[in-house]
Specification:
The protein is mostly helical. It has three helices and no strands. Helices cover about 95% and strands about 0% of the residues. α1 runs antiparallel to α3. The termini are far apart.
């Protein structure tokens, strides 16, 4: 879209330059008011062209932004799913660690109890 604007602007300026070249005698006799009218007539189509080009570029950028946001939403949903699965595994690991700690405590208590009994039977 931008290239089209550049090409059209280039040809427009070539046409204006040609007009100035071939009508130079008349151009030199223009009053300030006529110069203003001439410049407005030359630049107004370019301004309108670039307004349209800018609108097209903005539309393309918005499409790209929308696609990026949709991709980001999908990635965040995927991350949320993975985090939920990870939470389940962490709970299972926490239960296993608690059970292991309880088993170690029971074993330590049993060993202390056995040592006391052994100490009492020796006495």
């Amino acid at each position: 879209m931008e290239r089209i604007g550049v090409v059209i602007s280039f040809f427009w300026l070539i046409i204006v330059a040609g007009l100035l070249f071939f009508k130079w005698n008349e151009v030199t006799t223009l009053s300030l008011n006529e110069w203003g009218d001439f410049l407005a007539g030359v630049t107004a189509p370019l301004a309108f062209l670039w307004l349209i080009v800018g609108y097209g570029l903005q539309r393309e950028e918005l499409k790209a932004n929308t696609a990026a946001l949709l991709f980001q939403r999908e990635e965040m949903a995927s991350q949320a799913k993975e985090l939920a699965e990870q939470t389940i595994h962490m709970r299972e690991n926490a239960k296993a660690a608690t059970a292991q700690a309880d088993a170690v405590r029971r074993k330590e208590r049993q060993e202390r109890h056995d040592r006391r009994l052994a100490h009492r039977t020796i006495d």
